[in-house]
Amino acid sequence: MLQPLPLPTFPSLDVNRRKFLQYAGTSVTLLAAGQANQVLAQATPVQQASAEQWRVLSRLGYGPNAALAAQVRGTVSLRGWALQQLDTAYRASQTAPVLSEELQDINAPLPRIFEGERLEREARAKLKSSGEPKDERQRLDFSGPREPLFFNREMIEKTAVWRLQSCSQPEQENPLLARMTEFWFNHLNVYINKGAVRPFVGHYLINVARAHAFGTFEDLLLASARHPAMLHYLDQAQSVAPGTGGAQGNRRGLNENYARELLELHTLGVDGGYTQTDVRELARVLTGWTVGPLMPSGFRFNLRGHEGGSKKVLGHTYPDGFLGMGESEGEQAIRMLAHHPSTARRLSLRLAQFFVADHPPAELVARLSQRFMEVQGDIRLWMQTLLESEAFWDPANRLFKTPLDYACSALTATGGAQERRHLLLTIGFLSNAGQPLHGWQTPDGYKTDAATWLAPEALTRRTDFALALGKQGENLDFLMPYLSPATLQTVAAQRPAMRNGLLLASPEFMYK
Amino acid sequence: MPTNDNALQRRQFLGTLLAAGSAWAAPAAWAQSSNRSDGRLVVVFLRGAYDGLSALVPYSDNQYAVLRPSIAIAAPDGTAQTALRLDDTFALHPALAPLHPLWQQGVLAAIPAAGSPDPTRSHFDAQHHWEIGLPGHSGARSGWLNTLAEMRADNASRSVALGVGEANPQILSGAAPVQLVPRGKSATKQGALGDQRTRDAVMKLYAGQDSLSQAFRAGAQSRMETAQILSAEMADPAMVGREMAAANNGAGSAQGLLLDAQHLGTLMRQDRRLRLGFLSAGGWDTHANQGAATGALANNLGNLAAALVQLRRDFSQPNDVVVVCSEFGRTSAENGTRGTDHGHGNALWLMGNRIQGGRWHGQWSGLAQGNLHEARDLPVHHDFRAVFAQVLRATQGASNTEIERLFPGFAWDAALDNLIRA
Fold first, then answer.
1. Which H or E run includes A350?
2. What pTM was computed for the model?
């Protein structure tokens, strides 16, 4: 809880307050709900430009810091700048992410991650009844070697730290790349607290969502299908032909979990035109796709567990040949699904909801779907159509920040992800807000709309976070052009120590 | 436990604290009557499709053990590792043993094959159907508990519905104001609003008439009250043990349910205008290694039982009802990985003094393959809307017109007419 701080002794020296009030006379009321159009219609060109900059920075990234604000202010064409970001972000996706020494484990070769996981399992098996010894280490303290017993915990923490750094340090990670990493991770969601998934989420983020963020959707989908995080999360790793002998001589069989979600969530969508028979047949096609703890890819095709016989998915037949067609059956099926028109529609709707509006114009979704088919799932070319659309730039298409948007944008503004206590604060905020990092249990991913996140009590929790985060640090003057006169006046009237927090807690900061 | 006088003083105190908040009205007088419309309804939703065939075990059906060679709950023989006999057909999972006395007292009942008539096996579609009260409809629509809140409210600006846990569950979303409290201990904290100068400054930021500012002000008031009530309650020595027992909750897990249930009970006891409650727990999608008498599912069921026992303490007025449900059931046969896949019909539970408990209701056609839905799942013999319709008519005073508005096109199910005591 905040303690009152002493008032400034010499108010006349409060230069900053004058600046706020000065700005209050010139800035645009960006974002009062329901009034945006009216206000924007009256706004001067300078004010409109600020509003547009805010939207672009907040949607193609996580909002401004001082450097980004200056960068976009200096551009001749904001639309040109936005399109250029696609290429910059694509190039960045083809390079390794910045990982500090202590975070490198999350992107270690997969056999090493499997090894760490195995050692923890063995250490835990030895504990028996003596119970788990206390982990003496403080949270997010990664110094020195750690006991095998806490391997998974450490990997979860490191993954969270990298994620928060990459969404809030534009000089470390291209903001649009961080945005699309979020989008694809959420579309192909895995849950970090499910047993065997835990240590692999960082690697999955980097090598699936990030690496393919601007590539083709089929490559992304295949990378996800073969990654240990997904293989474990939706139980595909265990799904084999009925009657296959298991490790202890017991018989195992089919698990249709992954096949169903692959159709329902990752590709066609629930109304995309498949039946329970397709789910079952796709599960048969995928039998034998499992984890390979010794393989660099982390993936193994277990021919013994693959179900023979002919199969038929969405009218495509996989004939009964010698031992079936093995691994290529699944690969063909996944490629086919990635290029399906229903997939194009589902992904286009999600993209438009993520970048444009909770209820995007049908015409935009149709155009994106068409484009997706034309460019055969080339994500960069598909997104060009998004950025060239009028809907993307239409100020009437408002978006309310999710808790993750909010946290990352506040961290970006304050540069806060460099301090352990601020990382802890953010992790706690996201949990309480209902959007814990990598913590959505079900494969549908987080919702991103205001209907989900604009809830009365939840708004007040953003205030707690903002005030704690804004307690110290550089002043945030660069935010002024984006805030309303009423906000600036209110903030100016407060003691300096509270001003940063109040700027971050302001109504305007809740929108992107 | 604080008395109602204390609660009133606390509220008046809070009302004056929140200069920018709306005026605080005195709590409505609440009397222990058996008026048929004064009941409180709590819906507990088990997200992920819980395996009802492990909870309400059809032990005497010889197909049961055949279909589930490694995960069947053993037929009752009086020992701890076997199910608890309820009658000649069904038995309780041993982890649900704390519910056995409630069954014996006649306040707990089950409907073994209930659900949504829509055949979807998508969690998300099915949950959407349950929450909007309109199976088969995937478009937007208010949650039916929100619409019910709108019907039950005598003051449009005051919430009569409370959700604990989720950010904004569909079932509570809509035009009527609802109180939403986060999962776990953070519900007990006022945070930055607890400091007056900070609060004043923040309230000024949200002094406008736009919808965001209005939502913020309502949220601030609600949060102050919630935190006051819960922190006072949890400071009570009698509550400390119970709080501790629930402290290790994980977000969204069945383990967090007990603490959420405590918070729900406390808030609804302190504010008698709150008449509709919603709780949920995830972690029920047991595709692999679900276990049997012990294991992952058994742990979840144990947590559910503890939460229901807690809810029984707080919701035992004459017309209070607690309903436990899930979007669909799971396959009657175990799959290839000692778990179960998505099914159709499922067991639904009701608890309350008006419930004709100590027995199960409706139709049960067993596990013979010919009687299963698509030869694999329990059929839905009873539409969930028909179950709620019985409860709403008897304990919420809901008229047929109102029920029709909540559940358009639902059909009254006379086979459930004995569900509620007269």
1. helix A341-355
2. 0.85
